[in-house]
């Protein structure tokens, strides 16, 4: 009876059956003026940085994305980040950055660390996930590493006590530990993630990492719908390379986060495809999620075969941060199509394509 009545009902309502398929005509409702182009500070950086940031510029132009770049030349051997660059990021609120090489030893401090401190970019986020069509040892990997970005071993508090003896201080505060824990749980809550894992070495550094764990535990009580657990950093590394699919969101102090993010990136496909960003209350800097020393790879630079995928996906994160979700979706979909097709891949992904060939393929794959 119900089956017979359906055609009659359609006739009465004057609805052809094809129109009964539900559609969503509105996916994002902007406020007036939200479509105005946004200024973004651009730091091409060192080594392969100009090559991959140039790739992003080409794709943004091809998409007619509502952003324009204010370019500044900054290099890792400078004493400090120029003041006009800092002011540009403070004005624009958003920056896209290539890698900045950090000199080994000597008295030159890392400009990456300077930027994070100056702008209080307290949270580093790296998303490590399997890309369809890219063969890896492990499947079902989708890990978000959220790393405290302003203190810990990166505080730069070192001095020579006596000749031949150097003391390096690790600084952990309750304030910074609480706010990174809050960010991790809030990220998990807003992105429908199920679990947050705190990475630590509190069995040895009982006061410093103990304070970090205490802060994470306090914040965890406010999110009863999200599972919380803890893991010692050395066991964490072993579990990552043996069973990475068990992890979801990971929250870490500064140094551990760097190690964990690069390890997770290697498991999920390599540093060349992992996006990331550094965010604070007011500003955000987007860059390749895990660098693992490829910034200064001269051979990649000479052959112009640097992988632009990581920074392209980071720029998609940036577009979503700027509330341009449809442009972010288009860019991510185009990159995924190129990876899945497999015809254009750089050497680190098993291919022989140049950076420009990958960029041309991504542009061709745009809807």
From TrEMBL:
Family label: Belongs to the isocitrate and isopropylmalate dehydrogenases family.
NCBIfam families recorded: mito_nad_idh (TIGR00175)
InterPro entries: Isocitrate_DH_NAD, IsoPropMal-DH-like_dom
Domain Isopropylmalate dehydrogenase-like positions: 39-362
Keyword tags: Transit peptide
Name of the protein in its database record: Isopropylmalate dehydrogenase-like domain-containing protein
Domain of life of the organism encoding this protein: Eukaryota
Organism: Hibiscus sabdariffa (roselle)
Key word Transit peptide present: yes
